[in-house]
Amino acid sequence: MTFFIIFLGIAVWTWLSTGYIFYLFNFMYIGISICVAMILDILLPRKHKPWGRRISQILIGCYMLVFLGFFGRENMQIEGFFMFVFLGIFAAATMHYVIAKIIGPLVFGRAWCGYACWTAMVLDLLPFKVCSRGRYRYFGIIRYVHFALSLGLILIIWFVLERRPVYQSTEELYWLLAGNLIYYIIGIGLAFKLQDNRAFCKYVCPIPTLQKIGAKFSLMKIRINKDKCNDCGICEKVCPMNVKLLQYKGLNKRILSTECIICSTCVNTCPKSAISVNFGLDAGLIDFLNFAEDGSNIKSRQKNHTV
Ligand code: SF4
Ligand code: SF4
To answer: What letters, b where the CB count within 10 A reaches 16 and e where it falls short, cover 247-281?
Structure first.
């Protein structure tokens, strides 16, 4: 209910501030999709709970990509956002980036990545849901290089080539198609190569460059109840982003890592029901993550506990 009220507020605010009634329907649809996920999360048995989130990904991801992108002919990729900013057009893509990726993370953290992204919508269906090896420490730099290259490309097109794209044109559609095709090819290829569905999110996607700024201060985060937790380490084993949840618990903090995508996998897997999503005020400055180079101890900790 809280989510629906928040999205209803965003829907009314964007409608009244822009004068476009489209935004009222747009954000209400997104709010309803997330509520469907929440309701399924409550109703489904533990084993099937991830389907609530996946259905939300499909409802929102397909709507954004197919309806706004393909039919609306807006380049929803990050290059499209940069271009709309230069053009001074407050398009659906601009609104999407501002709400979902710049301001939204102050409230929802990186829940976009868990519940709505059209790239992750496909990646999460692949078979490598758990990467207990940990993540590769220095691969993460690729996402910042990607961000810089995308911005650089648009700067060259704008200032050097002096080209001005036509809003909602076939050219934009080609940008969108090409960009997404490249994302899917790299994302699926990396998932199989590294045996990790979320490898693209950890290393290549440029979007977290924007999201991680607001997500540090996110009101919504994951919390471990110290009294219920028995340190079994299952939560760290199943975390698709390799967050060291127990290190935060040890410091009596919520999960402050901006790598957390609020996917609720840990919440739904904890055998002691010690993990929950809650709202509060704090800021995350350090990412405690399990890295492959450190020799992930997730498996060994698991062996020492009976769940
Ligand atoms: S990191 Fe990128 S690809 Fe992954 S879920 Fe977030 S926006 Fe989507
Ligand atoms: S800490 Fe929990 S909610 Fe966050 S990414 Fe890991 S499993 Fe998902």
So the answer is: bbbeeebbbbbbbbbbbbbbbbbbeeebbebeeee
